[in-house]
Design a protein that fits this description.
Layout (H helix, E strand, L loop, with lengths): L2 E2 H12 L3 E4 L6 H7 L7 E4 L3 H15 L3 E5 L3 H16 L3 E7 L15 H5 L5 E4 L6 H13 L5 E7 H5 L1 E2 L17 H12 L4 E5 L6 H14 L3 E4 L13 E5 L5 H9 L2 E5 L22 E6 L13 E4 L2 H7 L8 H13 L12 H11 L5 E4 L6 H5 L8 E3 L9 H11 L5 E6 H5 L5 H7 L4 E6 L4 H10 L14 H7 L3 E5 L2 H13 L4 E6 L11 H14 L2
Parallel strand pairs: 2-3, 2-4, 4-5, 5-7, 6-7, 9-10, 9-12, 10-11, 12-13, 13-14, 15-16, 15-17, 17-18, 18-20, 19-20
Antiparallel strand pairs: 1-8
Helix pairs in contact: 1-2, 1-6, 3-4, 3-15, 9-11, 18-21
């Protein structure tokens, strides 16, 4: 059956299992939009308000579901707006496919209207960037893109769609389904070598993360860690991938890393690193382990051999998927119970934050959320000092999820929360956003309302760009510039988008306001009155300034 390239693309995506796409329409891919018209809702287009928000939604979808998040944007400005989501998906190792409308092939290389060289622009951001050069190759390219996005180290793929390739007719058959590709599995001999190394150690540690875990894989790792009584630390913003309620879980290695987590990594003699890429945040800027030969013995397990030895030379490198590896582990025992217990006790103690110098005490507000949120709640956040509350003061049980960007991208939290509600409308989704962070993508409240995917948004409103102000007061105390904001009335803004909205003035008001937010059928925005002084749980802004002044005086 002859069909135009846009229809061939949509039919193939449906066969692969795609059900949702996020995007902003453009004339460059009208044929794709036409191809969606007759899918009967099996392939839905979530209409977004900015390509950056759409790309964040797709990146979050990939991180949440393990299936590629699909984003569709137009050429030039649309593509460059969407690049932030591609970078975020790359650093998160989240599967994503960005489809970009492109000028016709007969105009290539002339700097035509909105022309962009996608291979050059996305070559270092994406796992693969490709431009389709013949309509009959659409199924072939799409099959490869889907496989590239989901295997090895998952990540984003960018596919440029020249307009004439989408309008041309083709007799090529669409795809009938995705390839079945098993995770690489470790050999029995390699597993025995890894277990022998762990068994011979005095202070073993498991460091884990990544997007592509199955429930069975996570359960197998938890069972092994508990049987062996080995402490487990999560890589930056992957604490939801290991049950925090397990007695072996000891915290997250990320921004604002607690001293006890640094000690666990620094003092371990053997580290079993599963499915992580040894990022800057997880290693405290590469200071916890020596580059390239760490003092600790490293067993690095990853589905992509390109990640093994990229920064640290392991004692044992194993190319294996996390689930296949975890399933192959067998119980061991050793004399490290006190080592694990000390790490767990320090993690538990970290929830005892002092009273915050703020009208709304975020330590108490987050403690309330720990009590009332369902066990399958999904939390999201963008970037800023406020992220300490969902990242360090919430306990993620086996069914809870965290969607937060390893790239530190502001504005990710709200689009991620919308994507989560699209994927799981029955679940409670709570977005933590700073006032600056929220305003990066607040227009996507319209997307949420139109899609019927309205989360609860908590705006930690302190009137400043908190992270930058903290660094500013440390390095240039009492010389504030460019970090104070004048904000709109967030409640009026949210109501204009159809959300329930309240200003929460005090801690005493928070519980009742959050109950009303939970009960709202149209989502909710709670504007929390938080003092700039309460910039971190254990150090005020004034204390940061005083420390900066003392350091300046000491250095002359």
């Amino acid at each position: 059956m002859a069909r135009h390239g846009g229809q061939l693309l949509v039919d193939s995506l449906v066969a692969l299992g795609a059900t949702k796409s996020f995007g902003v329409p453009g004339e460059s891919y009208l044929a794709v939009l036409d191809g969606m018209h007759d899918t009967g809702g099996t392939f839905d287009f979530v209409l977004c308000r900015n390509e950056g928000g759409a790309a964040f939604m797709a990146a979050a979808w990939g991180k949440l579901t393990g299936s590629p998040g699909i984003c569709m944007v137009t050429r030039g400005p649309g593509a460059t707006n969407a690049s932030i989501g591609v970078h975020t998906a790359h650093q998160d190792s989240a599967p994503m496919i960005l489809f970009v409308g492109q000028i016709g092939t007969d105009q290539r290389g002339r700097e035509a209207f909105q022309e962009v060289d996608y291979r050059a622009v996305f070559g270092t951001l994406a796992k693969w960037a490709v431009e389709i050069d013949h309509v009959d190759r659409i199924p072939e390219i799409l099959a490869r893109a889907w496989t590239m996005a989901t295997t090895g180290r998952p990540g984003p793929v960018v596919v440029a769609l020249p307009e004439d390739m989408l309008t041309s007719m083709s007799d090529a058959e669409p795809l009938t389904g995705p390839a079945r590709i098993e995770e690489p599995a470790p050999s029995a001999a390699t597993i025995q070598d890894a277990l022998a190394m762990l068994g011979a150690s005095e202070r073993p540690l498991i460091l884990t993360g990544g997007c592509n875990w199955t429930d069975a894989g996570r359960a197998a790792l938890e069972e092994f860690a508990e049987a062996a009584d080995i402490p487990v630390v999560a890589a930056f913003r992957f604490q939801d991938r290991f049950n925090n309620l397990s007695p072996v879980y000891c915290g997250e290695a990320g921004v604002g890393m607690p001293p006890h987590v640094k000690d666990l990594i620094r003092n371990a003699d053997t580290i079993l690193a599963i499915n992580i890429r040894f990022g800057e945040m997880t290693t405290d800027a590469y200071r916890l382990l020596d580059v390239p030969h760490p003092k600790q013995k490293i067993i690095h397990v990853h589905g992509s051999s390109a990640e093994i030895g990229k920064i640290y030379i392991p004692t044992l490198g194993i190319t294996a998927g996390p689930n296949a590896f975890a399933a192959a582990l067998t119980p061991i025992t050793g004399g490290w119970a006190d080592w694990r217990a000390k790490g767990r006790a320090a993690w538990e103690a970290g929830f005892d934050a002092p009273a915050q110098p703020s009208p709304v005490d975020m330590a108490l507000a987050t403690a309330h959320l720990r009590e009332v949120l369902p066990d399958d709640a999904i939390l999201t956040n963008g970037a800023g000092n406020f992220t300490v509350w969902p990242n360090k003061f919430y306990k993620f049980g086996p069914r809870a999820r965290l969607l937060a960007p390893q790239s530190g991208a502001m504005g990710y939290g709200l689009p991620a929360a919308i994507a989560a509600k699209v994927a799981h409308p029955e679940r409670t989704v709570v977005c933590f956003a700073g006032d600056g962070d929220f305003q990066m993508n607040c227009q996507e409240l319209a997307t949420a309302a139109q899609a019927g995917a309205q989360p609860i948004v908590l705006i930690v409103n302190n009137g400043i760009y908190g992270t930058i102000r903290a660094h500013q007061e440390h390095h240039y105390p009492e010389r504030v510039s460019g970090t104070t904001m004048v904000n709109p009335d967030f409640t009026t803004l949210a109501r204009a988008y159809g959300f329930h909205a309240e200003r929460v003035e005090t801690t005493a008001d928070f519980a009742a306001a959050f109950d009303r937010a939970l009960a709202s059928e149209t989502g909710a925005v709670l504007d929390l009155n938080v003092s700039a002084e309460a910039l971190t749980p254990r150090m005020t802004l004034s204390q940061m300034r005083d420390a900066g002044l003392a350091a300046t005086k000491a250095t002359g």
